[in-house]
């Protein structure tokens, strides 16, 4: 019973003799358990006998003893060599039995989630403490929680290709996570679509964008603020998923038996994965810009826009502005990945850094770094995408001419038109993605 009392005292931060909802949620979030709020409420509904919204030692003891009975057999099954502890090989064997592959560095990170004495093995008391704080119902759910502790979705409405475990590269394992992330991404893009529309118009029209947008609002109505959002949703999530998949595959090949990648390697993998995914879905980017900039009613939806471009121009029109776009994506994805991965590697050294607010701050810093290094090329790309129908835009034939054209018309400031709107949009996008993904995944898992 000493280890039970010790865990209770550890969780009782204010030493008032009770474990509050906030104290239990804080410990869950420290080890990456999400959604912590729902899991704490489930524990309270089953074990808070006097319904005072907290757990006394006796109530928590009943919960811990139930967990002990439930997981004792599973622990012995995981301890394949019957040495009384779980090691790296045991974790790797578990994943193999589930039809998954995991590298030694990632298995080491899972061990470190539970290892309290830095022995790189997990004894029964350490394992029990982990499943008490991480209230999984079975081995499959426990593995799923480990998986999501190694994944964090951030950025401007897209999934950051973080240090994924190899099971994330198996699309059959992503399942609910991909669908949940897609739904969250669609919601965040739809909510912030008017700001994204403003950003695109600022890139092309500069200071005239606001007055032009006001005239468009009078003509097309409130609905015109969401013009082009459908294609933006269709493009965003598949591109993010493909980028994460490519990054994870290349990372596993590059990593080998090492614990982590260097900053240069992270930058390189981010560049390649971002460029490939962007190239695959680039035609949808062109359609989005056309729908954003043309008056409401010009095109009969996404398919109508694609049909008119094909009939009146050519297939090459779907790749207008592709060169500066790829040049933009390479530093953006590379810098964002390198900065994010480096910050997260540093943050993992101290559990206190793993609060929701700090994770969001780290991710936003990475996004800002990527934007700052690549934004002028994004402006050139948008100008070239718009040049076929926008008489007020310059008509450059390449990125260099586009650079001079924007400078002559707007000065240095022109290279950063709309950047403020991009940052404003990134904040609610990231918050919605991070909040809704876990909620949607919980909902889908319960269906």
UniProtKB/TrEMBL annotation:
Pfam families: EF-hand_7, Mito_carr. Keywords: Calcium, Membrane, Metal-binding, Repeat, Transmembrane, Transmembrane helix, Transport. Its main location: mitochondrion. It is a multi-pass membrane protein. It is found in: Mitochondrion inner membrane. InterPro entries: EF-hand-dom_pair (IPR011992), EF_Hand_1_Ca_BS (IPR018247), EF_hand_dom (IPR002048), MCP (IPR002067), MCP_dom_sf (IPR023395), MCP_transmembrane (IPR018108). Residues 1-34, 35-70, 75-101, 102-137 form the EF-hand domain. Solcar repeats lie at residues 172-253, 261-346, 357-443. Belongs to the mitochondrial carrier (TC 2.A.29) family. This is Calcium-binding mitochondrial carrier protein SCaMC-1-B. It comes from Labeo rohita (Indian major carp). The lineage of its organism: Eukaryota, Metazoa, Chordata, Craniata, Vertebrata.
